[in-house]
From TrEMBL:
Signal peptide region: 1-36
Protein name, per record: Thrombospondin-like N-terminal domain-containing protein
Keyword set, alphabetical order: Repeat, Signal
InterPro entries: ConA-like_dom_sf, TSPN-like_N
Lineage per the UniProt record: Eukaryota, Metazoa, Ecdysozoa, Arthropoda, Hexapoda
Positions of the Thrombospondin-like N-terminal domain: 58-242
Length: 245
C-alpha cells in the first residue's frame, strides 16, 4: 500500500532528521505548510520547519490498518473532501500494531504530526495513541475532547515513561468544533515550541518544557488508531484519509 512511498528506517543518523507522522498523505494546505506531490509524499516541508535541513522521515500511521479491512462493521472505506479514499472507524474498531512495525525506537528532537479527520460524533476521542506495554500510559498521542456548542480541545500527549507514571499532556489547543467536517490540522514540535496549524492557518504556539527532547518508547509499546487501547479507552468514531496506490 502506501508504505513504499514513505521513508523507512534505513539505519543512518536520525539526530539531524525530523520525523513526520501523517494520518493523511493527500495534503492540500493553502498556506503551503506541506503539500503532497502527486505521488503522495510530502514535498515542501521547509515552511513547517525553519532550519534548512529538509531531511525527513515520513511515517504513515494509517499503514497500521490491515487491508483488506478486518471487520467491516467497525471499519469502512470513505472518501475525504479532496476525493481521496479515507478509512472510517466506528466504535469497537480495533486497529492495533506493535509501534516498531511503523515507527523508529527513538524520536527525533523535532517532529510534526499531520492529521486529516472527520469526527463522526461530538464525543471526540484519540486519533491515535502509542501506549506503554501495560497500556496504561499514552507515550505519544493526539486526543480530541468532547465538543461543546462552540469549541473542542486538541491535546498532544507526550510522556516519558521512564520518569512519569501517568499520561502527560504537552499542549492543549482550543479550536472551533469540527465534528462531521473534514478538517486538517498539524502539530509542529520544535525544540522550544509546539505550534498548532488548524484548518489552513497557524493558530497558536505554546512553549512547554519538554523532557526528554528525544522521546523513546517502551519496546513493547503498541500503536492504536482511533482509540488508546482497552485500558485508557477514548474510542473515536472518525474518518481519516489516506491515499491509495
Ligand atoms: C515521487 O516523488 C519523488 C520525491 O519527490 C520524486 O523523486 C519522484 O519522481 C516521484 N515519482 C513520481 C512517479 O511522480
Ligand atoms: C467550550 O469549551 C471551551 C474550551 O474548553 C471553553 O473555552 C468555552 O468557554 C466553552 N464554551 C461553552 C459555551 O461552554
Ligand atoms: C490540558 O488539559 C487537561 C484537561 O483539561 C489538563 O488536565 C491539563 O493540565 C492540560 N495540560 C496543559 C499542558 O495545558
Ligand atoms: C475551515 O475553513 C473553512 C473555509 O474558511 C470554513 O468554511 C470552515 O467552517 C472551517 N472549519 C472549521 C472547523 O472552523
Ligand atoms: C517559539 O515561539 C516564539 C513565540 O511564538 C517565537 O518567538 C520563537 O521564535 C519560536 N522559536 C522557534 C525556535 O521557533
Amino acid at each position: 500500500m502506501t508504505g513504499t512511498r514513505f521513508g523507512r528506517i534505513e539505519g543512518g543518523n536520525m539526530s539531524r532528521r525530523k520525523v513526520l507522522l501523517a494520518l493523511i498523505v493527500a495534503w492540500t494546505w493553502s498556506g503551503h505548510v506541506a503539500e503532497a506531490n502527486d505521488n503522495g509524499s510530502f514535498e515542501s516541508l521547509g515552511p513547517l520547519f525553519l532550519d534548512d535541513s529538509p531531511e525527513m522521515f515520513e511515517f504513515n500511521l494509517l499503514d497500521a490498518v490491515p487491508i483488506p479491512l478486518r471487520d467491516p462493521k467497525t471499519q469502512y472505506v470513505d472518501e475525504s473532501e479532496d476525493g481521496f479514499p479515507a478509512f472510517g472507524f466506528r466504535a469497537g474498531a480495533d486497529v492495533k500494531m506493535a509501534y516498531k512495525q511503523i515507527l523508529p525506537d527513538v524520536f527525533s528532537e523535532e517532529f510534526a504530526i499531520l492529521i486529516n479527520a472527520k469526527p463522526m460524533s461530538r464525543n471526540g476521542g484519540f486519533v491515535f495513541a502509542i501506549v506503554n506495554s501495560m497500556e496504561s500510559i499514552v507515550e505519544l498521542g493526539v486526543r480530541i475532547a468532547p465538543e461543546n456548542d462552540t469549541s473542542t480541545v486538541l491535546s498532544l500527549y507526550y510522556t516519558d515513561v521512564t520518569s512519569e507514571v501517568a499520561s502527560h499532556i504537552l499542549a492543549n489547543f482550543t479550536v472551533p468544533k469540527f465534528s462531521h467536517k473534514w478538517t486538517k490540522f498539524a502539530f509542529r514540535v520544535t525544540v522550544d515550541n509546539v505550534t498548532l496549524f488548524f484548518n489552513c492557518s497557524e493558530t497558536d504556539t505554546v512553549t512547554p518544557i519538554r523532557k526528554p527532547l528525544r522521546l523513546s518508547f517502551e519496546s513493547a509499546s503498541a500503536l492504536y488508531l482511533a482509540q488508546a487501547g482497552p485500558v485508557i479507552g477514548g474510542e473515536f468514531e472518525v474518518g481519516m484519509s489516506v491515499f491509495f496506490f
